[in-house]
Design goal:
The chain folds into 2 domains: 9-80, Ribosomal protein L6 (Outer Surface Protein A, domain 3, Alpha-Beta Complex), CATH 3.90.930.12; 83-166, Alpha-Beta Complex (Outer Surface Protein A, domain 3). It contains 2 helices and 13 strands. The protein has helices at residues 59-80, 138-151, and strands at residues 9-10, 16-20, 23-27, 32-36, 41-46, 49-54, 83-90, 95-99, 102-106, 113-115, 121-126, 130-135, 161-164. A 4-stranded antiparallel sheet has the order 11-12-7-13, with helices on one face. A 3-stranded antiparallel sheet has the order 1-6-5. The longest helix has 22 residues, at 59-80. It is elongated, with a radius of gyration of 21 Å. One of its GO terms (molecular function) is structural constituent of ribosome. One of its GO terms (cellular component) is cytosolic large ribosomal subunit. Keywords: Ribonucleoprotein, Ribosomal protein, RNA-binding, rRNA-binding.
Length: 178
Amino acid sequence: MSRIGKKPIEIPKGVEISLQQDVLTVKGKLGVLTYAIPAGISVNTEESKLVVARATDQKRHRALHGLVRSLVNNMVVGVSEGFTRTLEIVGIGYRAKKEGTGITLSVGYSHPVDVPAPEGITFDVEGTNKIIVKGIDKQRVGQVAADIRKIRKPEPYKGKGIRYSDEVIRKKEGKTAA
């Protein structure tokens, strides 16, 4: 039995959950998320908890059990609290500026790079070198943050570029070190 899959999911106050056929809808103060439950996996409501169960011990059902539980838990957390991902810009002359709903990055190219905010995602810029990506869908927040980081990855010699706030860059020595 999956350790993660058998944990019940606590439903906080203000979150409504409805299951129609195989589509789970989660409503909260921040928005609404839906997810199509795969065949062989069932989601049941018991008091103020959600329980994810699998139909059989087939390899496919075992693999999906913990995954579906994690995705449903992320939906519940997303509509009640939301998710954030923080990026830092390191480098002389590198900066970010909020423009409308998107951001404009100056990261060493001959032109500024505009990043529009996808639907459901908001950007905050603290100072000129900190970008905060916010949203209710954990996967989309992480993907947008990864796409921004991809614009100028941190390089290993001076550490210049866009990095996650909790990321550690292992620096290399230059060619004069040998």
